Amino acid sequence: MTRIRPFHGDDTEAVVALWRDAGLVVPWNDPYRDIERKLTVQPELFLVAEHEASVVGTAMVGYDGHRGWVNYLAVDEARRGTGLGRALMHEAERLLAERGCPKLNLQVRSTNAGVIEWYRTLGYEPDDAVSLGKRLIPDTAP
Ligand SMILES: CC(C)(COP(=O)(O)OP(=O)(O)OC[C@H]1O[C@@H](n2cnc3c(N)ncnc32)[C@H](O)[C@@H]1OP(=O)(O)O)[C@@H](O)C(=O)NCCC(=O)NCCS
């Protein structure tokens, strides 16, 4: 049985390996620092899907008081197409709605545009907005 639960510290290596396999680790983000930072802000919204004691999916969810966000959505390649990605997004939506969050936003890297069609099947639409960012703390992925 697969269950979705909050992240525990001893999931770290499995989670980073899953993110690397899923192509989500980029040189400008250190995944270990990303995990450490998330554990200081709404750690209960950092979701892990576990199947027979193995980490098979993740979703890093947050609510900033105006919008909800999902980062690091990933499913183990061997388990894709079984509804787990959808289940992680539904759990993210449920937890955010429970907190009074009116809208969920997420960003898709331009190099990963193929996944936009998948998000559309879940009811997500591109917003008429350009995403801007400014790095405040430099990281380098190990
Ligand atoms: C995106 C991702 C999380 C989806 O996880 P998943 O567990 O395979 O998703 P689900 O099983 O819930 O959904 C699969 C369904 O979507 C469909 N689907 C998959 N890719 C699709 C696409 N590009 N466009 C439209 N539908 C797609 C499948 O056919 C399947 O449909 P079915 O249930 O009718 O058979 C997974 O592919 C992944 O980890 N990708 C790499 C990391 C990534 O890109 N994350 C998003 C960062 S923004």
From TrEMBL:
Give start and end of each N-acetyltransferase domain. Answer: 2-142
Coiled-coil blocks: none
The record's section on Pfam families has: Acetyltransf_1
- GO molecular function, one example? acyltransferase activity, transferring groups other than amino-acyl groups
Does the keyword Heme belong to this entry? Answer: no
Keyword Metal-binding assigned to the entry: answer is no
Keyword set, alphabetical order: Acyltransferase, Transferase
This one is known as GNAT family acetyltransferase
- This protein's species is Agromyces tardus
Instruction: Show the taxonomic lineage.
Output: Bacteria, Bacillati, Actinomycetota, Actinomycetes, Micrococcales
